[in-house]
Design a protein that fits this description.
The longest helix is centred in the C-terminal third of the chain and has 9 residues. The N terminus and C terminus are likely disordered. Helix content is 10%, strand content 35%. It has one domain. It is globular, with a radius of gyration of 20 Å. It has 6 helices and 22 strands. It is mostly beta strands. The strands form 4 sheets. Strands 12, 14, 16, 17, 19, 21 and 22 form a 7-stranded mixed sheet that branches. Keywords: Membrane, Transmembrane, Transmembrane helix.
Length: 417
């Protein structure tokens, strides 16, 4: 069976749409690294560097970390399936960190979700000293294990990987181990005002810097846009993504057409929102992130992801993806995207680190960062905003419907820290 016929039979987007819009821009300085079949042959990941690798079907791959005793270490893994890949709702990746005795330090999964649209997904792992664990203590060798999860029905080709490792130094003085008990959890009011054009980047390393305000861009089915937002200690970010309505003869429904995800400075996912697209009545409904707390060092001691992820200042990423399946119902686009970004509160002093992060300045907001955000930034930014590309809306009237249940279904996390 030809690819277009097979894709149609599986209910997945056509390859011509995906290939045109879904390419991921890997970091220009990414170094090649091979994933080993076991711990013995694992190659080292050095903090502060970005690596490029691949993940075969039905395989685990191992990488090595050499860690000192005091710092927290964070690893992010972005998986990029080939354009036109067949995916199921539960397909995704698992990222875990273990010590040399195979004790679990952390484990997380990321999934493609109900839209089954090929696009970059990111999971993270960590060896933390704050909060501490009964195991995974001390200096030594640790391992990062990456595995594909899901069903045997997905396409067999290997997925490309981008890996980063970041270390966070300990504090000069011990801090409270209790997270804030009260914070403003009311739904944020979307920012209003005249929109400025700012096209998102095609990867974390190419994220366009934006600050508080209204930003517009073009997005096509299968495309993912990345933005970064400087957020200081004590500040509370918010974001809403809106896809423009389309008038014409097209009609239908696209599940989880538009996805918006907030990632923290180490590319750990904090919160997300998904919106469906209904082509019958033309009403528009935005994808709005639920409220997250202001940045606080002690948030790391909380259990909910959207709280413990807000543990440090720096560039937060907004990633927007427009599902490839939108093209099947509404055309190839591009479609108008409006991003409303808010940052509440005055920046405060940090907790007082006893050293520097690797790479440097990850957990702070510099004057240069704020200047770039005020001007709309460039297409190369440290804080990444994942712009979810909802794509392929042709002639037709479109309405967005939130499918919160799919948000919970699409991503399951298991943390041991």
């Amino acid at each position: 069976m030809s690819w277009p016929a097979a894709a149609a039979a599986a209910g997945t987007p056509s390859a011509n749409v995906s290939s045109a819009a879904s390419s991921y821009a890997f970091a220009e300085d990414a170094q090649p690294v091979g994933g080993a079949k076991g711990p013995k042959d694992a190659e080292r990941l050095e903090a502060g560097k970005t690596y490029r690798s691949s993940l075969p079907r039905d395989a685990k791959v191992y990488y090595r970390l050499d860690l000192e005793a005091a710092s927290n270490a964070y690893v992010s893994v972005t998986a990029v399936p080939r354009a036109g890949s067949t995916l199921s709702i539960i397909d995704g990746i698992s990222v875990s960190v273990t010590d040399d005795d195979n004790h679990s330090c952390s484990n997380e999964r990321a999934r493609f979700g109900a839209a089954r649209s090929p696009h970059p997904i990111t999971a993270w792992g960590a060896r933390t000293t704050a909060p501490p664990k009964p195991v995974c203590r001390g200096a030594g060798i640790y391992y990062v294990v990456v595995e594909r999860t899901g069903t045997a029905d997905s396409s067999p080709g290997a997925w490309d990987l981008e890996l980063t490792t970041t270390t966070e130094p300990p504090l000069k003085q011990a801090a409270s181990t209790s997270p804030p008990t009260v914070w403003n959890s009311a739904s944020p009011t979307p920012v209003s005002g005249a929109a400025k054009h700012r096209q998102g980047g095609a990867g974390f390393s190419r994220a366009a810097t934006v600050g508080p305000g209204v930003w517009r861009a073009d997005i096509s089915p299968g495309q993912t846009l990345f933005y970064k937002v400087p957020v200081g200690w004590g500040q509370q970010p918010s974001a809403t993504a809106e896809l423009s309505s389309v008038s014409g003869t097209g009609h239908g429904y696209a599940v989880d057409a538009l996805a918006l995800t907030l990632y923290n400075p180490v590319r750990a996912d904090v919160e997300d929102a998904n919106v469906g697209y209904d082509g019958y009545d033309g009403r528009q409904k935005p994808a709005s992130l639920a409220a997250v707390p202001a940045v606080d060092y002690t948030n790391r001691y909380a259990i909910p992801d959207k709280v413990n992820g807000m543990r440090f200042a720096g560039s937060y990423f907004l990633v927007v993806h427009l599902a490839a399946g939108v093209a099947d119902k509404f055309g190839d686009g591009p479609f108008g995207l409006t991003l409303r970004v808010g940052v509440e509160g005055a920046a405060q002093e940090g907790p007082g680190y006893a050293g520097q992060s690797v790479p440097g300045n990850v957990f702070e907001v510099t004057a240069q960062d704020r200047g770039a955000a005020g001007e709309g930034g460039a297409a190369h930014a440290d804080a990444t905003m994942k712009a979810v590309a909802v794509g392929g809306i042709g002639a037709g009237t479109v309405v967005l419907v939130v499918l919160g249940v799919w948000t919970a279904t699409a991503r399951r996390r298991a943390r041991a820290w």
